[in-house]
From TrEMBL:
Binding site for pyridoxal 5'-phosphate: L146, T147, F174, P175, S176, D177, D259, H262, Y284, W332, N360
Compartment annotation: Cytoplasm
Cofactor: pyridoxal 5'-phosphate
Record-level GO BP terms: 'de novo' NAD+ biosynthetic process from L-tryptophan; anthranilate metabolic process; L-kynurenine catabolic process; L-tryptophan catabolic process to kynurenine; quinolinate biosynthetic process
Molecular function per GO: kynureninase activity; pyridoxal phosphate binding
Record-annotated membrane-spanning stretches: none
Family: Belongs to the kynureninase family.
UniProt gene name: BNA5
Catalytic EC class: hydrolase
Catalytic activity annotation: L-kynurenine + H2O = anthranilate + L-alanine + H(+); 3-hydroxy-L-kynurenine + H2O = 3-hydroxyanthranilate + L-alanine + H(+)
Protein's UniProt name: Kynureninase
Organism: Bimuria novae-zelandiae CBS 107.79
Principal location listed in the UniProt entry: cytoplasm
Length: 499
């Protein structure tokens, strides 16, 4: 096994475990200032049973009151729902004011001090989205939601034939991806045995080696139509080698699509250069667009062309001839903007990803995504990644140091920083998850649990700090010690105390 020396491994306990060390790491990093772009809920906010900030409730004589109520919570759950950028409220208010004051004109009129007209918002979002996923602006579009987009993309890219019809996914695929692939097979009356799953070697070790992934693809290549994989696996946090796997598939004549739910806004991507056929993602995890907000998709340049037909090599300019483009399920928003409102029933796809749009997209959603993208524009994915590597290395090193003894948990995310993003998944010894969760949640820690034994902890580089991680570790390890201690005194059914 190759070793991956941790940046913080050589620092002694008396330094590394101190709060001061975390504070200094934050001060050294220029990107730490981006935390101020976000609303960080306080512990009191989280504890209150009614919605809204705690201050408002106390004014009304409601709500609890505990000593640490005003302390910022330790929110390490951006892999599930990113925090709210401060500017989101301002942008959304501007949207509401535009709608209130202009009605339908909000669609077309450029307004002083306003956002682009709603009709052009999708174009405004493309530029910034393209930078985040490493694409040409024409290759991306903000539309629909992730699972819907996977289906739309499969309707165009999954074309089963009697020879090639299998879909390869991974064995621990996010259920929605599994259902999407399975129902595509059902849609074509193909037996479910055509769904090939790449299984991890053991339930306790979800790591998929690249060799294993490639070998399963090779084994089924002659009958496979599509490979659909996650850029970053949601459970283990493993970052797959998108470029290499894509090249391998293409060498075997297989189309490959990527679900980037956990990769977008987390690691720098180069979808264009890696020749990815298609990809889709949501904008509510590391992208901070808001719960269930409109998603995004990528269609490589080579698949987005809209051309006049050629006869014997000559381009036909006759207006009545059918344009040549990749077939897809279509709607009016994918049709040429200049003729969209003529209602002529002639679909003229916009070249590139925008031609895959169906509906008039929610301007409210796009406004929220715009706020989030404007925060990303304050930095670059490369700079964020550099910060993220340090944050996650620090989290890892702190987790590994547990009272000078082996901890009753292990990290199941790859140790190689190149094979993971921000998230570390922690597998706890049996029976610890519930008491640990209860203890840390009571103290304002927000992480994500996967029953029976896994906690996912994701320091988001835009807003999480070394101080957050220090506070997390302090509370988490206290919780683990307490849970272990109470486990060892649990009375077994036959009355004997277990030790
Ligand atoms: C979050 C996530 C989804 C969610 O899909 P929606 O359609 O947005 O509800 C799907 N797949 C993966 C891999 C995810 O991580």
């Amino acid at each position: 096994m190759p070793q991956y020396p941790n940046l913080y491994a050589t620092i002694n306990d008396s330094q590394l475990l101190s709060e001061e060390f975390a504070r200094r790491e934050d001060e050294k990093d220029a990107l730490s200032k981006l935390r101020a772009e976000f609303v960080i809920p306080t512990k009191g906010d989280l504890r209150n049973k009614r919605y809204g900030p705690k201050d408002k409730l106390l004014e009304n004589g409601e709500g609890t009151s505990r000593e640490d109520d005003d302390e910022e919570s330790i929110y390490l759950c951006g892999n599930s729902l990113g925090l709210q950028p401060r500017r989101t409220r301002e942008y959304v208010n501007r949207y509401l004011d535009t709608w209130a004051s202009k009605g339908v004109f909000g669609h077309f009129k450029t307004l002083e001090g306003g956002h682009p007209p709603w009709l052009d918002l999708d174009d405004a979002l493309k530029q910034q989205t393209a930078r985040i996923v490493g694409a040409l602006p024409s290759e991306v579009v903000v539309m629909e939601t992730l699972t819907a987009n996977l289906h739309l993309l499969m309707s165009s890219f999954y074309k089963p034939t009697p020879d090639r019809y299998k879909i390869i996914i991974e064995g621990k695929a996010f259920p929605s991806d599994h259902y999407a692939a399975q129902s595509q097979l059902e849609h074509y009356n193909i037996p479910s045995s055509a769904l090939i799953t790449i299984a991890p070697p053991s339930p306790d070790d979800p790591y998929l080696t690249t060799e294993h992934i490639l070998s399963v693809i090779s084994q089924h290549h002659a009958s496979t139509a599509l490979v659909l994989l996650p850029g970053i696996q949601f459970y283990s946090g493993q970052y797959l080698d998108i470029e290499l796997i894509t090249r391998h598939c293409h060498g075997l004549g297989i189309t490959v699509g990527w679900d980037l739910a956990h990769a977008v806004g987390n690691v720098p991507l180069k979808l264009h250069d890696w020749n990815v056929d298609f990809a889709a993602w949501c904008n509510y995890k590391y992208m901070n667009g808001g719960p269930g907000v409109i998603g995004g998709l990528f269609v490589h340049d080579t698949h987005g062309k809209v051309e006049k037909p050629k006869v014997n090599g000559d381009v036909q300019h006759d207006n009545d001839t059918q344009l040549v483009y990749r077939p897809r399920l279509s709607g009016w928003w994918g049709s040429d903007k200049s003729s969209r409102f003529r209602m002529e029933n002639k679909f003229v796809p916009i070249p590139g990803a925008s031609g895959f749009q169906l509906s008039n997209p929610s301007a409210l959603d796009m406004t929220s995504v715009l706020a989030s993208l404007d925060v990303f524009s304050l930095t670059s994915m490369d700079a964020l990644r550099a910060r993220s590597l340090r944050l996650t290395a620090y989290l890892e090193e702190r987790l590994l140091r547990y009272d000078n003894k082996p901890p009753p948990y292990k990290i199941i995310t790859p140790a190689n920083p190149a094979e993971r993003g921000a998230q570390l998944s922690i597998l706890l010894s049996p029976g610890l998850l519930d008491p640990v969760l209860e203890y840390i949640e009571d103290r304002g820690v927000v992480v994500d649990e996967r029953k029976p034994n896994v906690l996912r902890v994701a320091p988001a580089p835009l807003y999480n700090s070394f101080w957050d991680i220090h506070r997390f570790i302090t509370i988490f390890q206290a919780a683990v010690r307490k849970a272990v201690a109470s486990q060892s005194t649990t009375v077994t059914p036959n009355g004997a105390a277990r030790t």
